[in-house]
Design brief:
Layout lengths: L10 E7 L3 E8 L6 E8 L7 E9 L2 E10 L3 E5 L9 E6 L4 E5 L8 E3 L7 E7 L10 E6 L4 E4 L8 E3 L10 E10 L2 E8 L3 E6 L4 E7 L4 E6 L8 E6 L3 E11 L3 E8 L5 E7 L2 E9 L3 E8 L5 E3 L5 E3 L3 E9 L5 E6 L6 E6 L3 E7 L6
Antiparallel strand pairs: 1-30, 2-3, 3-4, 4-5, 6-7, 7-8, 8-9, 10-11, 11-12, 12-13, 14-15, 15-16, 16-17, 18-19, 19-20, 20-21, 22-23, 23-24, 24-27, 25-26, 28-29, 29-30
Length: 362
């Protein structure tokens, strides 16, 4: 396939159909002549079993390199807490279990926590591996039970557990992400089905900031997890995403932000380009993906009427868009070392690999 991007970007793709519903996909650094993609899918079997698959891409052709069936459907996964050498893949499943697998030996987990959550583990994020972020490797999980937990992947008990307020309705946590991970600093962002976005400071063990995005939050993504907080994209139901400038926090106004409409359907995800933190891709319920860039304002902050600094948000520009499926794009990941190379998955049970070119212009 060719995407006529004019002066913007071009794309080409390889795709394959998985035997079950694909929920997430990640690109793995590998040898120079190949790309490996670890794919988590929930099996189509009546008992709802899960499948872990590893695909290999060579010379434009995709092939299944390994596959292992698991007792429960697998909802999410991450390589974030693993080094490139180990390539350990952490997963969360429909039974509330967390497990870590070596992608070279998928039979049994190298680490597991049965019933880490009372119900489905909706989201998992990692930090400290892949040469990204200071501090020890950690995992963060968000579940249907409303809890956000931070794990040391060597210990059975959570390092931190953020519990729903007693007496308040339990809100489904849909997404988690690490950020500000440098030196002794580290935060976890979480998004909930009622639109809540919460930023928890792990160093001070306190809630740093919270707001509401008016619709269920499907994804939170920092432009870089391993530097002073700069920007964060929050995607939601009802065709919207928000970009928050995280450099300046006002006591009352919080962080400056702008809101954009996209896809004419749910915006399921946002992923920043590893080689350029001002570019990101969104995946939509219309089966399309959009490429955006951010333009900074001349001044990142100004004085509020109370004489305290308040952030100034910049502008968002849509560079290109393309609809590739009749079903939502629910998973997307950029290659960490090949600019523009990406893999994605749709609810039509397909896995696709795309190349976006001309990204060096931005």
């Amino acid at each position: 396939e060719e995407d006529d991007g004019g002066d913007r970007h071009d794309g080409c793709a390889a795709d394959d159909r998985a035997p079950a519903q694909v929920f997430d996909v990640y690109a793995v650094r590998d040898a120079v002549d190949s790309l490996q993609c670890a794919v988590r899918v929930r099996g189509h079997l009546a008992e709802g079993k899960g499948v872990l698959q590893v695909y290999e891409l060579k010379a434009g052709q995709m092939s299944l390199a390994d596959e292992r069936q698991k007792p429960h459907g697998i909802k999410c996964g991450t390589f974030g807490a693993s080094s490139f050498a180990q390539r350990s893949f952490a997963t969360g499943d429909y039974a509330g279990n967390v497990a870590v697998f070596d992608v070279e030996r998928l039979d049994e987990p190298t680490f597991s926590v049965p019933k880490a959550h009372e119900s489905i583990v909706n989201a998992i994020a990692g930090i400290g591996g892949l040469g990204i972020g200071g501090g020890a490797p950690e995992l963060a999980t968000g579940g249907r039970d409303g809890r956000v937990k931070v794990w040391d992947p060597r210990v059975q008990e959570p390092v931190v557990s953020l519990e729903p307020v007693a007496g308040q309705p339990t809100r489904d946590c849909w997404t988690v992400a690490f950020g500000n991970s440098h030196g002794d600093e580290r935060v976890v962002a979480a998004g909930y089905d009622n639109g809540d976005v919460k930023l928890f400071d792990l160093r001070t063990n306190s809630m740093r900031w919270e707001t509401n995005a008016n619709n269920g939050v499907t994804c939170v993504d920092f432009d870089r997890p391993d530097v002073d907080m700069n920007k964060m994209v929050v995607t939601t139901l009802e065709s919207r995403f928000r970009v928050f400038d995280l450099r300046t926090q006002h006591a009352d106004q919080g962080f400056a932000h702008c809101a954009e409409k996209a896809h004419k359907a749910t915006v399921w995800l946002a992923r920043h380009l590893p080689q350029n933190r001002d570019l990101w891709m969104t995946g939509g319920g219309n089966g399309g993906f959009n490429l955006y860039t951010y333009h900074y304002p001349k001044k990142r902050s100004t004085l509020h009427h109370d004489n305290l600094p308040v952030g100034v948000v910049g502008d968002v520009e849509l560079l290109n868009s393309r609809v590739i499926s009749t079903q939502p794009i629910v998973a997307f990941d950029w290659s960490p070392d090949r600019e523009g190379l990406a893999c994605l998955a749709c609810l039509d049970q397909t896995l696709r690999v795309f190349i976006c070119t001309k990204l060096d212009k931005y």
